[in-house]
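User: Here's a chain of 97 residues. Predict its fold as tokens.
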Amino acid sequence: MTTKERTFIFNLCVILFNIIVGLFIEAILLLGLLFFLAENPNLQESVFTQVAIPILLLIGLIAAMSISVHAVSWAIKKFHLEDKLDPKVVSRYQKKL
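Assistant: Prediction complete.
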């Protein structure tokens, strides 16, 4: 298997991982908001929910990206993929100190 093929498969796995992590984090945040609103019924029809949902979605997106970058960087180091993948992909996830 060539480096290009391994990089393609790696990118597909990263995309799938990003989707799963993003959906999981967004679901947790939205369920948390639903439980919060169930405890405070007077906030359900206020501007709070119209502001809280976009902010929660943005926070979830940023958290999912951060978790993804750290997890993929860890996987590259753990499984010694530096020499098996395209150097551009590796440099995207690992920063030289």
